Amino acid sequence: MNGPERKKYNPDNKTGYEYVLLADHLAGFIERGEWRPGSRLPGERALSEEYGVALDTIRKATQILRERGLVTTLKSKGTFVSEPK
Question: The HTH gntR-type domain covers which part of the protein (predicted)?
């Protein structure tokens, strides 16, 4: 997959729910500007395969990003990085 290196996610050295750790990891790409406002995040299935986690874990992580105001999800379109507030 093209784009920022995502394979460096390693929850083994941290404690907490995996979906929260993954949300923090993905938020880092947005906060560092590696994923710019308006850019589309990889699909849920692609992220699930890439990180070796269940689809529900990806969905919960994406929900956290939405709650933080970092992304917006448009039905049948995808999840996009929000403009900074």
Answer: 16-84
